[in-house]
Amino acid sequence: xxxxxxxxxxLDMAKGLETLGFTGYATRTRQLVNELHRRPRQQxxxxxxxxxxxAIKQAIxxxxxxxxxxxxxxxxxxxxxxxGRVSETLNGKRT
Length: 95
Known about the structure:
Number of helices: 5
Mean pLDDT: 90
Shape: rod-shaped
Helix content: 55-70%
Strand content: under 5%
Distance between the termini: 43 Å
Number of domains: 2
Largest sheet: none
Radius of gyration: 27 Å
Oligomer: single chain
Order of helices and strands: HHHHH
């Protein structure tokens, strides 16, 4: 069942409860129906690294050859991207 279907069913149940004299339960059911909605998207964390560009990819490959003992973390910090982006670039996932 999808949320809109659940909302409709709960509203029908609230009407039935009210006709039976259970107004307190009907009111609470309607309050619960109001809780069943998609909440607005929360603000995302600020972007910490640059967008990947061909120049950055080239720099990663260049510095990886020039400094083979650098970790991917060090390469990423030097080039302004995350270690994950460095890994993707070096493994051919970001060509």
